[in-house]
Structure formats: C-alpha cells, structure tokens
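tool=predict chain=A
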Amino acid sequence: MPESAPAPTVVTLADEDAGKRLDRVLARLCPEFSRSVLQRWIEQGRVEQAGEVVSRKTKGLAGAEVSIDPAPPEAMNAEPQDIPLEILFEDAHLLVLDKPAGLVVHPAPGHADGTLVNALLHHCEIQGGTDPVRPGIVHRLDKDTSGVMVVAKTPATHERLVEMFQQHALERAYLAIALGRPPQSMTYDTFHGRNPAHRKKFTSRGDRGRRAITHLETLELLHGSALLRCRLETGRTHQIRVHLAEHGHPVLGDPLYGRSIGDPKLRHASAELGRQALHAILLAFAHPITGEPMRFESEPPETFLRALETLRVS
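tool=predict ok
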C-alpha cells in the first residue's frame, strides 16, 4: 500500500523574494526539497502562491503565502535477503549489531535491495515505525561508516527508542582519523541544515537549522592527521563529517566533505581504507523495556586499523 503524502509546507515570501523565480526562492527557503523536485511538483500543480496554482515561470510576490503539497513517496518494498549480520546482542525486543562499511541501512532510490533492512527481515521478525522500508530503524549510520547500531524488533521498543534518541538519552561515540592538527578537546555547537549550494551536503555555517553538538577529543597525533574520539549529543545527518570538515579537519577519505591530499603517506592510508575513516565505537543506553543498563563497544575493522598503523609516527 503506497504511503500517504506528507503534510503541506507553507512559507511566506519576504520583500527581497519579489520578482525572483519561485522555484529558486523555494529551493532556498525549503532546503529539505531539491530544486528539481520542486519544479516537478510545480508542473504537477502542487504549488500555490496566494491561492493560485503556479507555473515554472511564476515570479515571487512580496509577502505572499506559498503552499507546497508534496507528492507521496514512490512505493517501495523491502524483501528478506540472506545477508550475514554480526549480532552483538539480541532479545525479544531489540538487537544490537556491528554494521560493516559499505552496507546501506535501508532501501532508497539507487539502493532498492542489499541493505541492512533486507538482512534484518531475513534474520527475524522486525516491527515498529510507520515506514514499510525502514522497519525497526531508529537511527542510521552512513553507508561507509562502520560500527554499533541498535534496531527495534517491536512497536513498543521502537517508540521508546525514538523517544530516547530525541531526548539524547544514549551515549554515542565514534573514532575518526581527521586531517591536520585538531584541538586537544573541543565542543562544536552549531546549527545544522542542508547546504543550499550542494544538495547532497549539509552545513553548520547557516543561521538556521537544527542544533548539532559534537564533543571532540584528540587521542593520538598521527602523520599529518590525528585519531579523534567524537561524542555526540545530537545525531544529525553527516554531523561529525560536517563539523570536522568545516572547522578545517576533514575526515580522512571522506568523498563528500574531504579535500585533495598531496602527502603520499596520507594518500596511501586513504586508499588503503577506501572510505571515510569513521567508526561508531560505542553505544550505551538503558534497555527501553527492562531498564537494564546496556553498553556495546566495537573494535574498528581491519582496514581502519591498517590505515591507523600506516599513519603512526615511528
């Protein structure tokens, strides 16, 4: 059964928006939607300005109210697939696993199968949440980030875990190899939102968005880089990668936020790793049903450790 469409988004245009193409104005005001998607919805008659359906050539009106009626998401189905999982803990309510780098968490355009959700559906019965392609999923790791994740197996567990993540009632820590010489310790407390100039990227440099807090500690100085422990208070998309990159210390091997590397040893370590050097090492929380304290740690995979050894100063 297809998903219902999200609720309409309503924005009010400012004086400086007058006379500008509406699709461009909306792409700036609503960074959660790409400009191409907004153009498609305009063509489908899903966008109104001051109560009138607009066209691709419509210009903005100062003070006008614009309503965007998003189309329902394309229907997708998640089917069970026999994909190996490294389970750290499992009971009737939840499971904790060590996600390998390269595994997408849930089906999405471009990744219809071969995901963690497909593997989970083969492993056991997973319920919880309203999205049929994300059953049990309460948080994500990027495709090329490895480490500890928790998954709900029942609706009650899913609901409680979502609340715990929203209330920041979990302890989460990551290991990262970052370029340059980051501070010995630092807290980044910023806004976090989609980058208006690059649709696949996020940024902490805006004056609006959701709050993002990362606590950084340098564990070891390496060749042209450092091993960091990053503790999250919030869990925004790409949060650690954005905070480190926009403060001058991108994660080694990050294809989206990284920079070109001239140093041969750093290049070799990056090639050895083949992905961004980011690993979710710790997840600790109270069991959402029993209240029992739970703590899970995951050693970085061999590729991460090899890159680390390459960069250790002899």
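The CA atoms of residues 138 and 162 lie 6 Å apart. Helices lie at 22-29, 35-43, 116-123, 155-166, 239-246, 264-273, 302-311.
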